[in-house]
Amino acid sequence: MQVAYTTAEIAAFIGAQRIAGSTRQPVRDIAALSSARPGDLSFLGNAKYRSQVADSAATALLLPLDYTGEPKPDQVFLFVDNPSVALAKVCARIEQALWPKPLPGIHPSAVVVPTAKVDATAHIGPLCVVEDGAQIGPGSVLQASVFVGREARIGEGCWLMPGVVLGAGCSLANRVRLQPGVVVGSDGFGYEFVKGRHEKIPQIGVVEIGDDVEIGANSTLDRARFSRTVVGEGTKIDNLVQIAHNVVIGKHCILCAQAGVSGSTTLGDYVILGGQAGLGGHITLGKGSKVGGGAGLASSIPAGAYVNGTPAIPYMLERRIAVLQQRLPDLFKRVEALEKKAE
Amino acid sequence: MQVAYTTAEIAAFIGAQRIAGSTRQPVRDIAALSSARPGDLSFLGNAKYRSQVADSAATALLLPLDYTGEPKPDQVFLFVDNPSVALAKVCARIEQALWPKPLPGIHPSAVVVPTAKVDATAHIGPLCVVEDGAQIGPGSVLQASVFVGREARIGEGCWLMPGVVLGAGCSLANRVRLQPGVVVGSDGFGYEFVKGRHEKIPQIGVVEIGDDVEIGANSTLDRARFSRTVVGEGTKIDNLVQIAHNVVIGKHCILCAQAGVSGSTTLGDYVILGGQAGLGGHITLGKGSKVGGGAGLASSIPAGAYVNGTPAIPYMLERRIAVLQQRLPDLFKRVEALEKKAE
Amino acid sequence: MQVAYTTAEIAAFIGAQRIAGSTRQPVRDIAALSSARPGDLSFLGNAKYRSQVADSAATALLLPLDYTGEPKPDQVFLFVDNPSVALAKVCARIEQALWPKPLPGIHPSAVVVPTAKVDATAHIGPLCVVEDGAQIGPGSVLQASVFVGREARIGEGCWLMPGVVLGAGCSLANRVRLQPGVVVGSDGFGYEFVKGRHEKIPQIGVVEIGDDVEIGANSTLDRARFSRTVVGEGTKIDNLVQIAHNVVIGKHCILCAQAGVSGSTTLGDYVILGGQAGLGGHITLGKGSKVGGGAGLASSIPAGAYVNGTPAIPYMLERRIAVLQQRLPDLFKRVEALEKKAE
């Protein structure tokens, strides 16, 4: 990063509610409390690190309104409702400066079929392929080496990073961001076992991705056997996540890295899957339910449930059992002692 | 999808054994029993949904011969041996209409080295790379941005989707289908620890994929340290699956999403791995054996075995223990009570 | 492979300390002890296979100095300190013959922005994209369809295989090898929950990869929220591994396939993660610690620790509990019997 902001500029970006201390140093980088050096901006995003503020060498610190310490000389405290949100605003500003949005137009090396409808304000980067009847909406960016299949549709303000594959007939609504290597619209995994062989069931449905969805690098989303695989508005999916055919994911869900969802499973709104969690097929997760990291869930859970472990059970029970399991060696000894006594 | 078939046309495609009811409506889409609307084709593929047939609004329904209900007005029942297979036939017909096979030839943007042997009936799509001495057989399709390395061989009727990488010397037999982003022939993960450093062991073997194999999006198959990593005829591999070097997979296996197989492990024919299952290295899974979803298996299992859990144990035992584990809090109390009594 | 070496040539490559037996056959392939045929080179890399040496049909065998058997007629034993290392030397020789290093230069189909600095000895293969201000060092190879983002830096002797994405501002030191489909520099997975929506926290840091690192196919490494995600010198990462933002990995670590490391976690030098292991965020793994395959670790562990299971606990304890768990059905019966007696 090669940036420099005065603390006054930063206070203005973030709408600081109170400022304490002063400095003439510009801010040139961002760092965690404990590793920050002069010239850095830091922040208290998690109460657990509160004690590190006093020792931080950062030039400017974003702090919650209830923080009570005083800045050191040549150091500025900027008080805000939510330091993490404030930091995000600073980062967004830096992001714009560092990676400006590419200009509209189609790179000469891209292969765009004439029947495709590319909005004049869209950017089709080098070595992209856009097939028959595909539509690319206003301001959307295909960065490089992106594949958009037949009749696929991309709304406004989407960003498809290098190596993304959007299969035929699949659609992205608006402001969807696909990290590098994402595959949307691979075939669902469906076979019938006939005379000793697995006969392929054609997968002729699509994938529909809602507004403001983000999908992480190399994640895969299968097209429906028929009809639709759906990812609801505002849902965020991490890297290397697998979404099988006919899955329906609600709005504003969080799916952490390497989670997997089997076919025809439905997630309500605001569901959270921990990393490497695995869901069986044809089940339903109620609104706001949560599955712990690495958990394996084979049956439906109601709204608000929080499950953990494999097979997944209610979180508090799972935690209790995990502790008791470590006491099994002792339990076996105790039972043996009882048996001896009882002889 | 923009299709329309009469119910008589569909009855003919699938060889319906009996027809009940009638309609003049064409079929324009396919949907599940409970979500079907007029104009949709639906089917009873799983006995569990039998009760939904009577309420389904589908215009045409594919039903097993033993189904005893009657169609509603303006609705058609088509009776067949296996409704799922019949549906697959309809889907295959739709698939052909929607995604016609590309014409033979090499797209001008593809980079095909003159020493490569590309059959005149093959299709090399835009921005593909085909290196020295590679062979592409009759009717095979490299859709777009596919990489085929030196001396790699592709048989007849294969389909490599966008972003596939087929490494040097690796081979696909006939009718192999590789979903987007599949990597065949990455280096095996092999190092010797010498003087505090991991020294790379060159991986100079290949990967050989048999007839009618399908591999899911972004799955990875490593080339052998030497000799061959093998996937047998008819085996189907889902998305994000990892196959390590020198693994030998038999015929007609099923490997569900995110499963992983460590080096030099051998799977017999008809083995099934559940999603996220993990296999240790240098073990053997007998013919027709099955590993549950998320299970972790570190030792060999005989033909027909069905194991689950981590460490994986026989399925029925694992189920029983999973139930008993949930009763551990109670067991600890019971032992405590016994101890008090015994004092 | 189409190679042929005399046994004398091989003895010279590897610096054999002793030779027994003789043959006029050249070595044309490499195979495991049990599957080797005449014309093959084989080796005893693992004492477990010692009994297979006597029956091996290999023409030449690499054996440890303490092996005591005699070769058959027309067979040669080559004795060395470490047969696996010796084999690696043979393989490296074969590798050079089979896959010669590409010549320097930029393929005409590559899209290299004029502001990029490409060393004259580097090779930019077909259909690569190199963006503004990127630097490619001496002897580095971008094989095909590789993307190198703005201001990214690649040192000397690196090899980026087909489909690799190296994001803006990220850097590879020297002799880094990225297998096909690796993504370095995708956005970290960071959101703030504000008014019912997940607001993206811009991820403006980078990824820094040290000397001699190798990363397996389709693995993903996220850029830091700010500052750096780091992979230390000599670390080897297998396929489909997920490294989240702000992770710091030490030197000479081994991360097996499908392992996942959550955000801001730190691995000391020489840490080993088994396949499918999952680490929580914001924890520290001490130098030389080891996490078993499939284990789930949510808290820090000290140097030298070896943990297993989910939740991960010390390896020996986990093994003992795994055994006791299988005896739970029996334990429940024993407690029941005690209860009856105590009535």
Please describe what this structure looks like.
The structure is a homotrimer. By secondary structure, chain A is of the alpha/beta class. Chain A folds into two domains: about 90 residues, 3-Layer(aba) Sandwich (Udp-n-acetylmuramoylalanyl-d-glutamate--2,6- Diaminopimelate Ligase, Chain: A, domain 1); about 210 residues, UDP N-Acetylglucosamine Acyltransferase, domain 1 (3 Solenoid). Chain A contains four helices and 38 strands. Chain A has a twelve-stranded mixed beta sheet with strand order 6-9-12-15-18-23-26-29-32-35-37-38, covered by helices on one side. In chain A, strands 7-10-13-16-19-24-27-30-33-36 form a ten-stranded parallel beta sheet, with no helix packed on it. In chain A, a hairpin with a 2-residue loop joins strand 20 and strand 21. The mean pLDDT of chain A is about 95. Chains in contact: A-B, A-C, B-C. At the B-C interface, strand 20, strand 21, helix 3 and helix 4 of B face strand 2, helix 2, helix 3 and helix 4 of C.
